[in-house]
Structure formats: C-alpha cells, structure tokens
Amino acid sequence: MDFRAGAVARSNSRKRMRIVKEQGLEAKVASVVEAAIEQAGYRLVRVRTSGLNGMTVQIMAERPDGTMTVEDCEAVSRAISPVLDVADPVDRAYHLEVSSPGIDRPLVRKSDFETWAGYLMKLETNRLIGERKRFRGKIVAVADDGIRIERDQPAYGEPASVEIPFDAIGEARLVLTDDLIAASLKADKAARKRRGETVEEDGADPH
Questions:
Q1: What is the DSSP letter of 168?
Q2: Which terminus of the chain is less hemmed in, N or C, by CB atoms within 10 Å?
C-alpha cells in the first residue's frame, strides 16, 4: 500500500468519526443505533434524551452530504426502531424523535469543524481551558488534534484566540446568524443539485 494513500485514508476516516460524543444513557442509545443508521446510508449526529412527553429520545441524523428531509427522517426511524426494540437501552416508555441537525447544528466530526470554519459557534469544554469552559467565536484553524478559535467578545485581559483539543470538547454548535442561514441554504441547494433533484432558483445573486 502506498504510505501517502494510507495516510489520506486514515485522515478521511478520522474526519468521518464522531469526536464529540454522548455520556451515560445517551451514549448507550448511540452505541445501539449508530451502525443501523450507517447501514441505511446516513450518519448519526447526536442523541439527546429529555423529559418531554414523559420521556423523549431524540436521534439527530443526516445524509453524508449534510442534508436531511422528512422522508430521510422516516427512513432512519424505520431502520433504528427494530434495533432499539431488541436492545431495549431505555428502561421505561419513551417517545422516539428523529430529526435533522438544523441550521444551528451541533459540530461532532472533524469535517464539521472544517466545513463551518469562519462561522460563529459556541462551545463548552469538559475541562478548564485557560480557566474557562465556555467559549464563543469563529473557527480559524483545524488540526488533527484540535481547533483554534477567534473569540467573539473576550473579556479584558483574556487572549483573543484559544486552542482547544478535540478531546476537551463537550459540546459545540453553530450560532444562528444571517451569514450562516445563507451559507446553509446554498450548501443544501448544491447538495440537492448533485443528487439530481429539481431545485427552485430564487433568482438571487449568490455573490
């Protein structure tokens, strides 16, 4: 095997792996459904549980190109319902909800951080980084082991940029802005065109 090709393959594999993961019951559910979601042609983004409607288990998923339709959500639900029934990871009755990541999506893979570099995000770490656990800013660099962000409004005396290792990230998600909405709609339209779907043009100049 060509070493460089192997290195690229390993790098691409790391990009596809989730680096921001759940804990506790949510991690247990994720371990049950992730393979079934991938076999159906989708990617697991996140699992969340809440007390909504007694108890709700939310499975957030997407196509490899980042899009997700109502029909896709239904397909994922059909794929994971049998494995959840067999594994029975939740010890009480619950409502299953499958959804898309949304525009202000969680960032869980290295490729997510690369794709949305330059857009405003908020992040919470699982340990102190420079005496803080919560950060808000734009990703300006992505390395194999972490990211660097330019902070949105650093307090007086605090550094404007900070490097955060991937293994310190507890949760990260985009912040809804006009720029993000425009970029998300453009990316969704491009993905649908690549799949050969009919896309309605709005006549706006993308530049």
A1: G
A2: C
Coil, helix or strand for 86?
Answer: helix
Cβ atoms of 110 and 101 within 8 Å: the answer is no
Q: In this structure, what token pair is assigned to residue 201?
A: 């043009």
Question: Could you tell me the sign of the dihedral formed by the alpha carbons of 161, 144, 39, 22, in that order?
Answer: negative
Evaluate if residue 1 carries a pLDDT over 60. Answer: no
The sheet with strand 146-151 has its strands ordered as 161-165, 146-151, 132-142, 120-129, 169-174
**Assigned token pair, 121:** 């995000």
Q: Give the pLDDT band of residue 204 (cuts 50, 70, 90).
A: very low
- At 60, which amino acid appears? M
State yes or no: pLDDT of 69 exceeds 90: yes
DSSP 109: B
Structure tokens at 203: 């006549």
- The alpha carbon torsion through 65, 67, 70, 74 (nearest 10 deg) reads 30
Q: Write the DSSP assignment of 1-69 as a string of letters.
A: --HHHHHHHHHHHHHHSB-S---HHHHHHHHHHHHHHHHTT-EEEEEEEESTTS-EEEEEEE-TTS---
Answer whether residue 109 shows pLDDT above 90: yes
Amino acid present at 178: D
DSSP at 71: H
Count Cα neighbours of 99 within 13 Å in the Cβ-side half-sphere: 14
Strands 132-142 and 169-174, bridge-based pairing: unpaired
**pLDDT tens digit string along 5-37?**
444 444 555 567 899 999 999 999 999 999 999
